[in-house]
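Q:
Just now I want nothing more than another pair of eyes on a protein record. Here is the record:
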Amino acid sequence: MTAAPPRPAPKPGRVRVYRALYDYEARTDQEMSFSEGDLLYVSDTGPNDDWLPATCGGKKGLVPTNYVVSENVEELSNPLHEAARRGNLIFLKDCINNQVSVNSLDKSGSTALYWACHGGHLGVLKCLLEHPGITISSQNKLGDTPLHAAAWRGHRDCVQLLLDSGANAWIRNRDQKLPIDVAKDAEIAGLLDQAMRRDTRNEDCDNEYESGSDQEQ
């Protein structure tokens, strides 16, 4: 009789970020204590319905499910996007180190990478591109990619870094515009033109809307 195949390992749960509004004192060795104002990175997949795994300031432990679904905490909506939008590299790295998805989408369908390019935050962009699972040419609900954002906003260094990292310059948005079409800066348009001449394979590419990205959070 053939042995049954091993069960696949469970996928890690989505990580949400909360700010504690009250102190919590651990009652067992498995629990985690934290203080008012601390940021909690909480997985939505726990050992049972009563406990959820969390990290805080480098510590790991369990927190009661009823603590994070009550008025004891304030959930931070799309924390990675907010860090990228503001150029907050320290918070961004903290989110990534605590397993917040780099490809999650906000209500506009945009990734954190898009907002880093929109704001011209080169350090944040470099940090995100170092992540092996990052999706570079994901489109938002308007069809814009991070390359569209960087080109339109005139962030030359971001455009160059995206192109060097393999961003697709042939993707059209919902208005059928390529990144080169929205570029206002002649030097940026030149960079895009050169990239498109080098990579004619993508000229007839299909749109990559939400490709490889997590659903909205």
